[in-house]
Each structure stands twice: as structure tokens, then as C-alpha cells.
Design a protein that fits this description.
- A hairpin with a 2-residue loop joins β1 and β2.
- Strands 1-2 form a two-stranded antiparallel sheet.
- It has a single domain, classed as Farnesyl Diphosphate Synthase (Orthogonal Bundle), CATH 1.10.600.
- The chain has helices at 14-33, 38-48, 66-77, 86-107, 118-122, 124-143, 148-172, 185-210, 215-242, 245-248, 254-257, 263-269, 277-283, 287-296, 299-320, 325-339; strands at 111-112, 115-116.
- It has 343 residues and is an all-alpha fold.
- Helix content is 69%, strand content 1%.
Amino acid sequence: MNALSPAVQAPPSALDVLGRCRELARPALTEAVGRLHPWVAEMAGYSFGWCEVGGAPVAAPGGKGVRQALAVLGAEAAGADGRAGVPAAVAVELVHAFSLLHDDIMDGDATRRRRPAVWKAYGTGPAVLAGDALFALAVETLAAAPGGPGAVRLLSTALADLVRGQADDLLFAARPFGGPERVTPEEYRAMAEHKTGALLGCAAALGAALGGAPEPVVTALDRAGRHLGVAFQLVDDVLGIWGDPAVTGKPVGGDLREHKKTYPVLAALGSPEARRLPALLDSGAHTQEAAALIEEAGGRAAALAEARAHTAAARTLFADLPVAAGAAGELRALLDFLVGREL
């Protein structure tokens, strides 16, 4: 390279982007949680991975902070300083934590991030209380931000979708694997968009709105985030059956033993090769055989193909947006990181 030539700067990695956005939002998130009742604040800190039961700090707090990053990048996409998106980052992170606290109780999941879930560590009633407090704190945080009323309306819409998706997910558990009452892939896609995609879309849209973006940009970022959420959920479904437990933190075949209606299963059930699958899944005792049959019937391939389609839709929306080049590149890097685990 000529000594006078300008160096070509490599784009930041997704991990760099996540780290930068976490560092930007963390002081405000910590300050917000600190306003809660001390016991509730401890449970919140435990749920975020900041401390142990009793409040002892954790040396290396966990959590990627995906929703925080989307909110900060949404503001930067609007041409604003990333700090404009911090109230949105805090609000969506609080809502995400609230939803996980309640999800673990509803699903009976005893562990979260390789340690006892909040309801197992503190009790069911206290965990419900902590979740309610985080939800209220999220609304308070947004209401106090510039443009708060409009931001609260965006969050309310996402929350309504999240509840709708969680309701469908719970109802799916009672439906059979076979017959006319079985869950269809189309129903599952709608559930995933509501349960997982709504909050991801809301994060980016809220950041953009607080950053002064015009309505079409806010709407497009919400749509892109929803596609991202569906793709993320589909990849998570694949990892829930075939993923490495050392990476996923879940036992091999755990989703099959729990009779979850995940996309690979639903796609495979529509294949003639999968006639024996409902009986295998109902037994819960032949997870390896069921996983092999799902793959043979095309369930794994169908889930990954669907994830690629939603990823492509999100990329197209990002590419068509009139946003700052740096933010657009970081949004794409984040997209590739989140859904590239099996693609």
C-alpha cells in the first residue's frame, strides 16, 4: 500500500456493535433499575446477570443486549446521536426482561442462562412482582423521554402483539401433532412474529422515532425487526433440536421431549415420510429417532430456508432505507450475527 494512501477501515464486527451499544445504554439502565424497591432491584439485577441471589456482583455480566443495540442503531439510522435512542434501549430491555420472567413461570422453565430462573431462585410470587415492576419502569422511562407519548404508543402496540404471540404459544401446547387440529407452519410464523419479532421491531422503531426519523423509516425498521425476530426464532428452533448443548445451554432434543410445536417439527409433519412422527413425539422417549425423521422429512431444511427468506426480507428493507451508511452497515452486521448461527 502506498504510504500516502488512506487506510481502509474494516467495518465493526457485530460483537463490537453490541458492546458499544451496551456501554452506551448501561448507565441509564442501571440508574432506572436502581429506582426500584431494593429487593425488586436485586431480582432485576439477577435476571440481567449482574448479581447473584443476595446481591453479590457478578464478575462478567452476561447478555448480548440485542434490543438495546437495535434501539441505539435506530436512532443513528435517523442521523441522530446514539444517545437519543438510550431511553428506547432501556425500555425495550426492561420489557424483554419482564417477558422472560413471566415466560419462565408460564413454561415451567427452571433455568435461564445456565442458572436458576428468577422464580426458582426467589419464588413465583416475587418473580411475578419483579416482572410487573420492570414493565411499569419501562413505560415510565419512555414517558419521560422527548416524544414520550408517541413512543409509549409504539411500545403498547408491540406489547399487545407480544401477549398475542405468547397466548398462541401456550395454546399450541394443547393441540395435537397430527390431524386437522394440528398447528400449521403459517400459524407458527404469525406466533413467532408476535412473540419474538414485535419487540425487536419495536426496539429499532423506537430508537428511530426518538432520533427524529420520518414515519416511513420508523415503520420500515419495525418491519425489518419483525422479520429478524422470525428468522432468529426459526434458527433457535433448529438449535433446540440439533444444537450443541455446550453452545446452546440446552440438552440435546430438549424441545422434542417437551413436545414443543417448533417449525422444523411442523414442516416435517406435512411430509408423507413423517407418518410415524406424531407417535414418536407423543412418547417423548425417542428424541434421537424423532430428530432423524424430522431431518429426513425436510423439517430442518424447511426451517432454515424460511429463516433465509426472512433474513433476505430484512436485508432488503435495510438496503432501501435512506439512513446513515454507518448505521446501515452495523444493522446488517447485527442481522448476520443473530441469524447466521446455522445459515
